[in-house]
Amino acid sequence: MRAAWEILSCIYADLSEQERKAAEQTLGEPLKKDFRAGPAIEHGKGGWVSPKAPVSIETLSEMSVADIVDKLKSEWCPSHLHELDTDRDFLNPLNADGMGRLLKADLSTRPAAYIVRARLFLSPEALHTHYTYSFLSGVSEALRYKKSFECVDWSPFIQLMIAIVERSREGLPEQGSEHDRGDTWLAGWDGVLRAMGNVVEELLKNNNIGPVLAARYRAELICIICLLLANPDPTAEYERQTRNNAFSIAINSIRGQALQVFLQFIYRDASLTEGSAPSLVAGDAREIYATALNAETTMAVRFLFGYYLFFMHLKDRNWMEGLLPVLFPADAMKKDLYLATWEGYLTNQLNLDIFLVLREYYRRAILLNSAYYTRREYHTELDVGLARHMALAFVHIDDFRLNDDLLQLFWRTPNVERHREFISLIGRHAILREENDEAGDYDVDVLHQVSPLKIALPDCVAVNGGPLQFRAFPRADDTRWHASYLREVWNILGHHRPSAYDGSLPDTDAGEHNGIHSDIRPSADPDGSDHKVRLNDWYVSRYSRVLRAEYFRSRPPSYVFSNYEFAGVEIALGADPGS
Question: Which of 344, 385, 326, 371 has its CA nearest to residue 246?
Answer without folding.
Answer: 344
